[in-house]
């Protein structure tokens, strides 16, 4: 515990968009105290220089990454690092008694051969990786409660899996027919300068990327296979849309029972998510918009059945930086610590 009696928390990789979301959320969290902000290239800089809107709230510098120092001060550590780095840090932090929540892809995979094939990083932490729990609370809440290592999901998988889970769990859709068409705001590309994210490049344009080879594909397939209790392959195509934040995933699948109608599927979804305070299943004829979820940890789901084609269409809207990243990590922390799941998390954004 910190001197205040609160749980002491550190954030490694605090300078990125995911890091600053964590800082903002944890500053308002009644049970935690942020005692360490760490980074590599940003080490030594005042946090308020990186994010001037927090200048009067965060009077601390970014510190170098020193695992001994982190473990001596922190009970919980969030790792907001590029893929391939957390797997070198987490085993040491776990061994020193810290709880770890990783926001990269390093601990999302049960089969590390799959991770290596897609992320081109060899792993030497198989024992620790085998203890990691996939941090999607709506599906793995009970496992998260007893874990010390959480692999927080990607933003596209979060939106897509919230849309697909009830269909696959209840066997309502033919898995081989699943298509995910998803669109994300530019913050999903991170804070580092990239030509395709420049205003002149992205504004007024909409385009696909990572077609048939995006790294979130095997992550989505892994959880879909778990839900369906069989090997599942999906067609996933992401798009970049010129807005700062938000994801809309539109999912298509052929129903196993062509006699089902929209009201039937909505009933299934509302029952499936009846204990999930961060999922809003919308009534018939209401389709979600990303603006509704902006700056909140809520996912909005709309459903329609097309009787002409025998397909179900599920639309899922989230904030990619909150429910798709930092907010979901805090949600997992709340579950791990036995706190109320919504503690410190926003459920209503500003509109418009």
Poorly predicted regions are none
Determine the N-to-C terminus distance.
Answer: 40 Å
Mean pLDDT: 96
Shape: globular
Q: Record the strand order, biggest sheet.
A: 8-9-7-10-13-12-11
Radius of gyration over C-alpha positions, nearest whole angstrom:
20 Å
**Largest pleated sheet:** 7 strands, mixed
Order of helices and strands: EHEHHEHEHHEHEHEHEHEEHEHEEH
Question: Given the helix and strand composition, which structural class is it?
Answer: alpha/beta
Quaternary status: single chain
Q: How many helical stretches?
A: 13
Total strands: the figure is: 13
Q: Classify the beta-strand content into a percent band.
A: 15-25%
How much helical structure, as a percent, in the residues?
25-40%
Subcellular location: Cytoplasm
Active site: 155
Main location: cytoplasm
Family: Belongs to the NAGSA dehydrogenase family. Type 1 subfamily.
Describe this protein's structure.
By secondary structure, this protein is of the alpha/beta class. The chain has 13 helices and 13 strands. A seven-stranded mixed sheet has the order 8-9-7-10-13-12-11. Strands 2-1-3-4-6-5 form a six-stranded parallel sheet, with helices on both faces. Strand 1 (7-12), helix 1 (17-27) and strand 2 (32-38) form a beta-alpha-beta unit. Helix 1 (17-27) packs across helix 13, helix 7 (137-145) packs parallel to helix 13 (322-337) and helix 8 (155-169) packs parallel to helix 10 (216-228). The longest helix is centred in the last third of the chain and has 16 residues, at 322-337. The protein is globular and about 60 Å long. It starts with 6 loop residues before the first strand and ends in a 15-residue tail after the last helix.
